[in-house]
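Handout, section B. The chain below has 349 residues.
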Amino acid sequence: MNKILSAIGVGVVALLALTACGTAAAETPASTAAAVEAGNLDALVAAAKKEGTLRIYGQIPEASMTALSNDFQKKYGITVEALRLGGNTLAQRFDTETQAHTPSADMIVVVDVQYLATAAKAGSVVAYSKSGVADLLDLPKEAVFSDYDAPSVQVLDTGFIYNTDKVRKSEIPTTWSALEDPSWKGRYCAVDPGTSVNVAHSFWSVGQKEGADALKKLGENIGRWYPNVIAMNEAVAVGECQLGLFSAKFFVAGMQGNGAKVEFATAPSSVPPLVSAAVAAKAEHPNAARLFMEYLLSKEGNAVLNNPDTGSIGPWDMARLPAGFSAPTPDDFQRVHEATPDVIKALGL
Protein backbone atom coordinates (compact mmCIF):
# COMPACT_ATOMS: atom_id res chain seq x y z
CA MET A 1 0.00 0.00 0.00
CA ASN A 2 1.23 3.50 -0.85
CA LYS A 3 1.36 5.78 2.18
CA ILE A 4 1.39 9.58 1.96
CA LEU A 5 1.95 11.09 5.39
CA SER A 6 1.28 14.65 6.51
CA ALA A 7 4.02 16.50 8.36
CA ILE A 8 1.36 17.87 10.68
CA GLY A 9 0.39 15.54 13.47
CA VAL A 10 2.63 12.64 12.52
CA GLY A 11 6.01 14.36 12.41
CA VAL A 12 6.93 13.83 16.06
CA VAL A 13 5.48 10.33 16.16
CA ALA A 14 7.34 9.34 13.00
CA LEU A 15 10.59 10.77 14.29
CA LEU A 16 10.27 8.80 17.53
CA ALA A 17 9.43 5.66 15.60
CA LEU A 18 12.41 6.08 13.34
CA THR A 19 14.68 6.69 16.30
CA ALA A 20 13.41 3.56 18.00
CA CYS A 21 14.28 1.42 15.02
CA GLY A 22 17.98 1.43 15.83
CA THR A 23 20.92 2.21 13.60
CA ALA A 24 21.89 -0.97 11.78
CA ALA A 25 19.67 -0.57 8.74
CA ALA A 26 20.34 3.17 8.40
CA GLU A 27 24.07 2.57 8.22
CA THR A 28 23.67 0.55 5.04
CA PRO A 29 25.38 2.85 2.52
CA ALA A 30 23.76 3.68 -0.78
CA SER A 31 27.00 2.54 -2.39
CA THR A 32 25.80 -1.04 -1.87
CA ALA A 33 23.72 -0.42 -4.97
CA ALA A 34 26.96 -0.20 -6.92
CA ALA A 35 26.74 -3.96 -7.25
CA VAL A 36 24.02 -3.32 -9.84
CA GLU A 37 25.66 -3.02 -13.26
CA ALA A 38 25.83 0.62 -14.38
CA GLY A 39 23.27 1.42 -17.03
CA ASN A 40 21.39 -1.85 -16.54
CA LEU A 41 17.80 -0.85 -15.77
CA ASP A 42 16.54 -4.45 -15.63
CA ALA A 43 19.11 -5.30 -12.95
CA LEU A 44 18.18 -2.16 -10.99
CA VAL A 45 14.48 -3.05 -11.17
CA ALA A 46 15.17 -6.55 -9.84
CA ALA A 47 17.30 -5.21 -6.98
CA ALA A 48 14.74 -2.54 -6.12
CA LYS A 49 11.90 -5.06 -6.06
CA LYS A 50 13.95 -7.21 -3.71
CA GLU A 51 14.19 -4.26 -1.30
CA GLY A 52 10.43 -3.88 -1.69
CA THR A 53 9.88 -0.46 -0.14
CA LEU A 54 11.00 3.13 -0.31
CA ARG A 55 10.85 6.18 1.98
CA ILE A 56 10.79 9.69 0.47
CA TYR A 57 10.87 13.17 2.01
CA GLY A 58 9.59 15.82 -0.38
CA GLN A 59 8.75 19.50 -0.61
CA ILE A 60 6.43 19.22 -3.60
CA PRO A 61 2.64 19.33 -3.01
CA GLU A 62 1.08 16.31 -1.37
CA ALA A 63 -1.20 15.67 -4.37
CA SER A 64 1.84 15.46 -6.65
CA MET A 65 3.65 13.11 -4.27
CA THR A 66 0.57 10.92 -4.13
CA ALA A 67 0.22 10.75 -7.92
CA LEU A 68 3.91 9.92 -8.41
CA SER A 69 3.96 7.34 -5.63
CA ASN A 70 0.81 5.60 -6.86
CA ASP A 71 2.06 5.45 -10.44
CA PHE A 72 5.48 4.16 -9.40
CA GLN A 73 3.94 1.50 -7.16
CA LYS A 74 1.58 0.41 -9.94
CA LYS A 75 4.50 0.12 -12.35
CA TYR A 76 6.96 -1.70 -10.08
CA GLY A 77 4.99 -3.05 -7.11
CA ILE A 78 7.26 -1.25 -4.64
CA THR A 79 5.66 0.31 -1.57
CA VAL A 80 6.28 4.05 -1.20
CA GLU A 81 6.10 5.92 2.09
CA ALA A 82 6.21 9.63 1.31
CA LEU A 83 6.29 12.47 3.80
CA ARG A 84 5.82 16.08 2.75
CA LEU A 85 7.83 18.59 4.76
CA GLY A 86 7.55 22.31 4.00
CA GLY A 87 9.94 25.22 4.44
CA ASN A 88 13.24 24.37 6.10
CA THR A 89 11.73 21.40 7.97
CA LEU A 90 12.89 18.78 5.46
CA ALA A 91 16.55 19.76 5.59
CA GLN A 92 16.50 20.06 9.36
CA ARG A 93 14.90 16.65 9.85
CA PHE A 94 16.99 14.85 7.25
CA ASP A 95 20.22 16.34 8.60
CA THR A 96 19.32 15.52 12.21
CA GLU A 97 18.43 11.91 11.41
CA THR A 98 21.48 11.39 9.21
CA GLN A 99 23.86 12.78 11.82
CA ALA A 100 22.22 10.65 14.51
CA HIS A 101 22.51 7.52 12.31
CA THR A 102 18.78 6.88 12.63
CA PRO A 103 16.67 5.65 9.67
CA SER A 104 15.72 8.54 7.41
CA ALA A 105 14.57 9.10 3.84
CA ASP A 106 16.02 6.95 1.07
CA MET A 107 15.75 9.95 -1.22
CA ILE A 108 14.73 13.57 -0.97
CA VAL A 109 12.94 15.88 -3.41
CA VAL A 110 13.68 19.50 -2.53
CA VAL A 111 12.96 23.04 -3.68
CA ASP A 112 16.51 24.09 -2.85
CA VAL A 113 19.17 22.85 -5.26
CA GLN A 114 21.91 24.57 -3.23
CA TYR A 115 21.03 22.36 -0.25
CA LEU A 116 21.66 19.23 -2.35
CA ALA A 117 25.13 20.45 -3.30
CA THR A 118 25.93 21.17 0.35
CA ALA A 119 24.52 17.80 1.45
CA ALA A 120 26.57 15.98 -1.20
CA LYS A 121 29.77 17.64 0.04
CA ALA A 122 28.82 16.64 3.59
CA GLY A 123 28.34 13.04 2.44
CA SER A 124 24.64 12.80 3.32
CA VAL A 125 23.39 12.49 -0.28
CA VAL A 126 24.91 11.14 -3.49
CA ALA A 127 25.67 13.64 -6.25
CA TYR A 128 23.75 12.98 -9.48
CA SER A 129 26.84 12.10 -11.54
CA LYS A 130 27.78 9.45 -8.96
CA SER A 131 24.31 8.05 -8.34
CA GLY A 132 24.18 5.69 -11.30
CA VAL A 133 20.92 7.29 -12.43
CA ALA A 134 22.69 9.45 -14.99
CA ASP A 135 23.84 6.24 -16.70
CA LEU A 136 20.21 5.23 -17.24
CA LEU A 137 19.00 8.47 -18.78
CA ASP A 138 20.08 10.78 -21.55
CA LEU A 139 18.83 14.02 -20.03
CA PRO A 140 19.24 17.19 -22.08
CA LYS A 141 22.42 18.99 -21.04
CA GLU A 142 20.48 22.00 -19.81
CA ALA A 143 18.41 19.75 -17.51
CA VAL A 144 21.39 19.11 -15.24
CA PHE A 145 22.48 22.02 -13.05
CA SER A 146 26.22 21.58 -13.45
CA ASP A 147 27.08 24.03 -10.65
CA TYR A 148 25.33 21.70 -8.21
CA ASP A 149 25.69 18.27 -9.90
CA ALA A 150 21.93 17.92 -9.57
CA PRO A 151 19.14 17.24 -12.09
CA SER A 152 16.20 19.50 -12.82
CA VAL A 153 13.02 17.78 -11.65
CA GLN A 154 10.82 20.84 -11.95
CA VAL A 155 11.14 24.59 -12.54
CA LEU A 156 8.12 26.63 -11.45
CA ASP A 157 6.65 29.78 -12.98
CA THR A 158 6.31 32.01 -9.90
CA GLY A 159 4.19 35.07 -9.23
CA PHE A 160 1.00 36.05 -7.36
CA ILE A 161 -1.88 33.90 -6.16
CA TYR A 162 -5.12 35.80 -5.55
CA ASN A 163 -8.67 35.13 -4.38
CA THR A 164 -11.00 35.86 -7.30
CA ASP A 165 -13.84 36.82 -4.93
CA LYS A 166 -11.65 39.46 -3.28
CA VAL A 167 -9.43 40.80 -6.05
CA ARG A 168 -10.32 41.79 -9.59
CA LYS A 169 -7.90 40.91 -12.38
CA SER A 170 -7.62 44.60 -13.22
CA GLU A 171 -6.34 45.28 -9.69
CA ILE A 172 -3.29 43.02 -9.97
CA PRO A 173 -0.20 45.20 -9.50
CA THR A 174 2.21 45.40 -12.40
CA THR A 175 4.96 47.11 -10.36
CA TRP A 176 6.21 46.52 -6.83
CA SER A 177 5.59 50.15 -5.97
CA ALA A 178 1.88 49.60 -6.66
CA LEU A 179 1.71 47.36 -3.60
CA GLU A 180 2.94 50.26 -1.49
CA ASP A 181 -0.39 52.01 -2.02
CA PRO A 182 -2.45 52.35 1.20
CA SER A 183 -5.37 50.58 -0.51
CA TRP A 184 -3.35 47.34 -0.36
CA LYS A 185 -2.43 47.61 3.32
CA GLY A 186 -3.19 44.34 5.11
CA ARG A 187 -4.67 42.71 1.98
CA TYR A 188 -1.68 40.69 0.85
CA CYS A 189 0.49 38.10 2.56
CA ALA A 190 3.77 36.24 2.13
CA VAL A 191 5.91 33.39 3.38
CA ASP A 192 8.44 34.23 6.06
CA PRO A 193 11.79 34.53 4.20
CA GLY A 194 13.49 33.03 7.25
CA THR A 195 11.84 29.69 6.48
CA SER A 196 12.54 29.47 2.73
CA VAL A 197 15.66 30.22 0.73
CA ASN A 198 13.53 30.70 -2.39
CA VAL A 199 11.32 33.32 -0.74
CA ALA A 200 14.39 35.03 0.71
CA HIS A 201 15.90 35.03 -2.79
CA SER A 202 12.76 36.57 -4.28
CA PHE A 203 12.59 39.37 -1.68
CA TRP A 204 16.34 39.94 -2.03
CA SER A 205 15.86 40.28 -5.79
CA VAL A 206 13.14 42.89 -5.24
CA GLY A 207 15.47 44.80 -2.94
CA GLN A 208 18.25 44.67 -5.53
CA LYS A 209 15.95 46.07 -8.23
CA GLU A 210 13.87 48.52 -6.19
CA GLY A 211 16.05 49.36 -3.18
CA ALA A 212 15.89 48.51 0.53
CA ASP A 213 13.19 51.13 1.10
CA ALA A 214 10.90 49.16 -1.21
CA LEU A 215 11.21 46.12 1.06
CA LYS A 216 10.37 48.27 4.08
CA LYS A 217 7.21 49.57 2.41
CA LEU A 218 6.19 46.08 1.27
CA GLY A 219 6.67 44.77 4.79
CA GLU A 220 4.52 47.54 6.25
CA ASN A 221 1.61 46.55 4.01
CA ILE A 222 1.88 42.75 4.40
CA GLY A 223 -1.03 41.63 6.58
CA ARG A 224 0.07 38.10 7.46
CA TRP A 225 3.15 35.90 7.29
CA TYR A 226 3.06 32.12 6.81
CA PRO A 227 5.60 29.35 7.46
CA ASN A 228 5.40 27.89 3.94
CA VAL A 229 3.76 28.42 0.57
CA ILE A 230 1.11 25.73 1.05
CA ALA A 231 -0.19 27.47 4.18
CA MET A 232 -0.18 30.82 2.38
CA ASN A 233 -2.02 29.41 -0.64
CA GLU A 234 -4.69 27.88 1.59
CA ALA A 235 -5.10 31.20 3.39
CA VAL A 236 -5.69 32.97 0.08
CA ALA A 237 -8.21 30.33 -0.97
CA VAL A 238 -10.35 30.86 2.16
CA GLY A 239 -10.05 34.66 2.01
CA GLU A 240 -7.86 35.04 5.08
CA CYS A 241 -5.59 37.01 2.80
CA GLN A 242 -6.50 38.32 -0.64
CA LEU A 243 -3.22 38.07 -2.56
CA GLY A 244 -0.11 36.04 -1.84
CA LEU A 245 3.43 36.85 -2.96
CA PHE A 246 5.64 34.29 -4.67
CA SER A 247 3.35 31.35 -5.24
CA ALA A 248 3.49 29.18 -8.36
CA LYS A 249 1.13 28.75 -11.27
CA PHE A 250 1.47 24.98 -10.81
CA PHE A 251 0.12 25.17 -7.25
CA VAL A 252 -2.75 27.41 -8.30
CA ALA A 253 -3.77 25.05 -11.11
CA GLY A 254 -3.97 22.17 -8.65
CA MET A 255 -6.12 24.21 -6.26
CA GLN A 256 -8.44 25.26 -9.09
CA GLY A 257 -8.92 21.59 -9.91
CA ASN A 258 -10.27 21.17 -6.38
CA GLY A 259 -12.70 24.06 -6.78
CA ALA A 260 -10.73 26.82 -5.06
CA LYS A 261 -11.56 30.35 -6.24
CA VAL A 262 -7.99 31.37 -6.87
CA GLU A 263 -6.01 32.55 -9.87
CA PHE A 264 -2.37 33.08 -10.81
CA ALA A 265 -0.88 36.34 -12.04
CA THR A 266 2.61 37.27 -13.18
CA ALA A 267 4.56 39.32 -10.65
CA PRO A 268 6.77 42.27 -11.64
CA SER A 269 9.76 40.00 -10.98
CA SER A 270 10.35 36.57 -9.48
CA VAL A 271 12.96 33.86 -8.94
CA PRO A 272 11.65 30.47 -10.14
CA PRO A 273 12.28 27.69 -7.59
CA LEU A 274 14.46 24.83 -8.83
CA VAL A 275 13.18 21.44 -7.71
CA SER A 276 15.75 18.65 -7.64
CA ALA A 277 16.30 15.27 -6.02
CA ALA A 278 19.02 13.03 -4.64
CA VAL A 279 19.51 9.56 -3.20
CA ALA A 280 20.54 9.47 0.46
CA ALA A 281 24.12 8.29 1.01
CA LYS A 282 22.95 5.98 3.82
CA ALA A 283 19.72 4.91 2.16
CA GLU A 284 18.16 1.83 3.69
CA HIS A 285 16.72 1.00 0.25
CA PRO A 286 19.28 2.45 -2.19
CA ASN A 287 18.19 0.57 -5.30
CA ALA A 288 14.53 1.48 -4.83
CA ALA A 289 15.61 5.09 -4.35
CA ARG A 290 17.66 5.04 -7.56
CA LEU A 291 14.80 3.44 -9.45
CA PHE A 292 12.34 6.07 -8.23
CA MET A 293 14.76 8.81 -9.24
CA GLU A 294 15.11 7.26 -12.71
CA TYR A 295 11.31 7.12 -12.94
CA LEU A 296 10.92 10.71 -11.69
CA LEU A 297 13.34 12.03 -14.32
CA SER A 298 12.08 9.85 -17.18
CA LYS A 299 9.63 11.26 -19.73
CA GLU A 300 6.95 8.90 -18.46
CA GLY A 301 7.29 9.65 -14.78
CA ASN A 302 8.02 13.34 -15.08
CA ALA A 303 4.84 13.82 -17.10
CA VAL A 304 2.90 12.75 -13.99
CA LEU A 305 4.41 15.73 -12.15
CA ASN A 306 4.85 18.43 -14.78
CA ASN A 307 2.75 20.23 -17.34
CA PRO A 308 4.36 23.22 -19.09
CA ASP A 309 0.90 24.68 -19.71
CA THR A 310 0.50 25.12 -15.94
CA GLY A 311 3.93 26.67 -15.48
CA SER A 312 5.58 23.44 -14.35
CA ILE A 313 8.62 22.73 -16.52
CA GLY A 314 10.34 19.34 -16.43
CA PRO A 315 13.77 18.25 -17.70
CA TRP A 316 12.40 17.32 -21.12
CA ASP A 317 10.69 20.68 -21.68
CA MET A 318 13.46 23.14 -20.77
CA ALA A 319 12.82 25.00 -24.04
CA ARG A 320 9.52 26.13 -22.48
CA LEU A 321 11.27 28.08 -19.72
CA PRO A 322 10.63 31.84 -19.63
CA ALA A 323 12.86 33.90 -21.90
CA GLY A 324 16.04 34.93 -20.14
CA PHE A 325 15.84 32.20 -17.50
CA SER A 326 19.09 31.18 -15.89
CA ALA A 327 19.64 29.08 -12.80
CA PRO A 328 20.96 30.98 -9.78
CA THR A 329 24.66 30.39 -9.25
CA PRO A 330 26.28 29.29 -5.99
CA ASP A 331 27.51 32.88 -5.62
CA ASP A 332 23.91 34.09 -5.91
CA PHE A 333 22.83 31.74 -3.14
CA GLN A 334 25.77 32.83 -0.99
CA ARG A 335 24.81 36.49 -1.40
CA VAL A 336 21.21 35.68 -0.52
CA HIS A 337 22.32 33.70 2.54
CA GLU A 338 24.46 36.59 3.76
CA ALA A 339 21.75 39.16 3.02
CA THR A 340 18.77 37.26 4.49
CA PRO A 341 19.05 38.83 7.98
CA ASP A 342 19.00 42.28 6.35
CA VAL A 343 16.04 41.31 4.17
CA ILE A 344 14.12 40.09 7.22
CA LYS A 345 14.95 43.30 9.09
CA ALA A 346 13.93 45.50 6.15
CA LEU A 347 10.57 43.71 5.97
CA GLY A 348 9.99 44.43 9.65
CA LEU A 349 10.00 40.82 10.85
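Note. Residues 330-346 form the longest helix (17 residues). Compare this with the example in section A.
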